Amino acid sequence: MDANKLLGKKLTRHFSMIQAIYIMGYCSIYSYAAVFLLARGFTNSQVGLTLTLSSVMGLLVQPIVASFADKTKKFSLRSIVAVMLLGMIFFALLLFIIPRPVLGVGILYMILLTFFATQVPLVTTMSMDHINNGVPINFSLARGIGSFAYAILSIGLGYLVDDFGAGVIMLVNIALGLLGIALVLSFQKAKRSGDDGVEDEVKPTGLLEFAKNNKRFMLVVASISILFFSHVTISTFMIQIIETVGGSSADMGMANSVAAIVELPAMALFPLLYKKFHNAGLLMKVSGVAFLIKTAVTLVAPSVFWVDAAMSLQFFAYAMFIPASVFYVNEVISGADQNKGQALMGMVMGISGLLGNILGGLMLDSRGGVPFMLTVGLGVSLAGFVMLIMIDRSKKVIR
Description:
mainly alpha; 2 domains; Growth Hormone, Chain: A
């Protein structure tokens, strides 16, 4: 086995640990957000407002930080991510110490979420820089291992909260942040264009210029944001869906675990699919079909079993989309603007969350309830899927 393949295996193991830390961080910060905030005296409306405002902050800050990372020669990606992890640890510590008031806790939590969301696309670029240099890091396998770690923490954190209270969530965030700093700073740096002191043929562009030069890509991001509408509403309001078919909180936990566990084999197999098709845009469209089927099955599900069956379609939906979207950016965006491209693609969930959390809650409070929400979600996501087919013109990449 040549040295490049050995390096690829080594970095895949290392990057898998980084992904595990980050996806567990997503579990504790996002999935348990309502648990933590309700324990701090928030109402359901205040929880929704906090998460919505944090999405807005993330949408504003992500491209700015990504643009800085593209242009700076003084700071490495690893150092930028490490500083943001330190910021996350600091605000998690404040949230652990400060039990009230609601306004102060809400502001701190929004900042915490912004720190977390902004660094994720930079971590992705850390691996893609190696891949672009010919080092075979298995990104999708690493991401799948992260999903498996999510499933484990999701169950374990529930028991910890029951035993020690919601404050333990912030202690977990602090521990994950410290581990993340150690793993990120020890990850081997990839050579990026311009690192050797030679002027780049293609320089990073500003945000406005990037949007002007990549109009089709920006429209693809918009169409995916619409496609993800039903995914967000199902994820956010799973407990209401489960209760509609006669289930409980425990059934909700099982449904979420099913969705997370099937992501590991799906993402592990993604490189084989990509090697065959070399067209990430096509694979994103296939995942789009799975999103629509998952929503339709959830809509007509007569029991908890069928909701679990719908969640198993995550294998073809979200689990395929995540690595496909990363490789799509790698295909259509120049290396100098990779951080901005990954950040903008990463904003898809933020935009969908902004719309889905607000509108989903309003639809649930209407007379139509869960069926109405899922029906509208299916229609909106279908519109996004049609837009994606019409807008994306990516072709097979010749290797």
